[in-house]
Amino acid sequence: QVQLVESGGGLVHAGGSLRLSCVGSVIIFSNVNMGWYRQAPGKQRELVAAITNRGSTNYADSVKGRFTVSRDNAKNTVYLEMNNLNPEDTAVYYCRWSSTNVWGQGTQVTVSS
Question: Confidence class of residue 29 from pLDDT cuts 50, 70 and 90?
């Protein structure tokens, strides 16, 4: 089965940092496009960052300059480095195999004031 598993969420104070990881079981991981999404209570799920098989990246305006998405194909892993977090970043974060309905289980990120 294709499976994605996120980890790295937690509770931090405003201004702090977290690094999220997403490990995939996709056979040809190096050739897949991946995305990070987040969903806060009562809000729609939104794209935060994406990375293509070639390493090109894209970010939501709200996180540009603060978040960095990267990948390590040898480890079948994509990362989301989050710096200078603020309470508006509080959400459940999910990774996704782009253009599919394959999602991870989500990891909670909570940023206190």
Answer: confident
